[in-house]
Specification:
With 151 residues, this protein is mainly α. The protein has helices spanning 12-17, 36-46, 48-57, 60-79, 85-120.
């Protein structure tokens, strides 16, 4: 939620711009005095005049989201002047693709392992349970539900 500044403490924007913070300051609810770097970054990238115009043109209930978006983009632009947020999104998309490929490979390994376990065990014959591989323990051997396979 947006915070309002105290009457004695100017908002971060007015303090940065070295002006008196008036009662209806458009910056005051969104740039509290406790976080001066937020406004400094936004001002450096977008300019105080442009931010003021933007805040006056949009509905009051959308202003906080707009300021948060501007602050995020300004911080991203300072870190990566060419790509900004788009660069961060691109990195995350590549990470998602890499992790999806890793998950697909792991699922394929799991299916392959599961099918290998099923082919090693044959259905029971007339004399009880028999195994093709003598190194594989029967299921539920000794109250355990795992099989040991040295292969």
């Amino acid at each position: 939620m947006a915070s309002s500044s105290h009457p004695s403490a100017p908002c971060a924007a007015c303090k940065f711009l070295r002006r008196k913070c008036i009662q209806g300051c458009v910056f005051s609810p969104y740039f509290p005095p406790e976080d001066p770097t937020k406004f400094a970054n936004v001002h450096k990238i977008f300019g105080a005049s442009n931010v003021s115009k933007l805040l006056n043109e949009i509905a009051p209930h959308q202003r906080e989201d707009a300021v948060n978006s501007l602050a995020y983009e300004a911080e991203a632009r300072l870190k990566d002047p060419v790509y900004g947020c788009v660069g961060a999104i691109s990195v995350l998309q590549r990470q998602v693709l890499r992790l999806q490929k890793e998950l697909d490979a792991t699922n394929a390994d799991l299916i392959r392992f599961s099918s290998n376990q099923n082919t090693l065990m044959t259905p029971s014959s007339s004399s009880g349970s028999s195994l093709q591989n003598p190194h594989v323990l029967p299921p539920h051997y000794g109250n355990y539900s795992w099989n040991y396979n040295p292969n």
